[in-house]
């Protein structure tokens, strides 16, 4: 009798434990990684708007929540929203987990239109002309009750992108560009 004619049970009974494990599907391992909920809470310090929600549930990004987040994280000067890179939300989620903090994230700046970025760059050397803010890949944040130094250290420890430290202004810049740091 060929192996194709054997039932799965007969094949498994005839194999060693190690061989059985290699034949089993990896769905159990994969499913554990995709089960769960990822929540974030934002407060836009310029508009006074708040948003909270589960942006990821059981392996699926939640488009309605992401759209609401995009609105709250918009360029308030031009009243223009753009999609925020999902990697930035993942970064924020991991950052809060590292700090064991689920409080509201105070947003100083997220998406910036090219017009706003150009205006800010003309006023300050601290604004990059090709800022990741214009790509929806950066956010300037603070966490009430968390020292900016601790926020910076936690962000740097993750090695998920850029980290800028602005202690005088009371915020930390994070982006999902190359790993680097300044300030």
Describe this structure in words.
- The protein has 183 residues and is α+β, with helices and mostly antiparallel strands.
- The protein is 37% helix and 22% strand.
- The protein has helices spanning 8-14, 17-23, 27-34, 63-72, 86-99, 114-123, 148-158, and strands at residues 37-44, 50-57, 60-61, 105-109, 138-142, 162-166, 171-175, 180-182.
- It has an eight-stranded mixed beta sheet.
- Helix 5 packs across helix 7.
- The longest helix is centred in the middle third of the chain and has 14 residues, at 86-99.
- The termini are far apart.
- The model is unreliable at 1-13 and 15-31 (pLDDT under 50).
Unreliable stretches covering 5 or more consecutive residues: 1-13, 15-31
Measured between the Cα atoms of the first and last residue, the distance is 71 Å
Query: Kindly state the mean pLDDT as a whole number?
Result: 87
Biggest sheet layout: 8 strands, mixed
Question: What percent strand?
Answer: 15-25%
CA-based shape: globular
Q: How many beta strands in the DSSP annotation? A: 8
- Helix share of residues? 25-40%
Give the helix/strand class. Answer: alpha+beta
- Rg value: 22 Å
Adjacency order of strands in the biggest sheet: 3-2-1-4-5-7-6-8
Which terms would index this structure?
single chain; 183 residues; alpha+beta; 7 helices; 22% strand; disordered N terminus
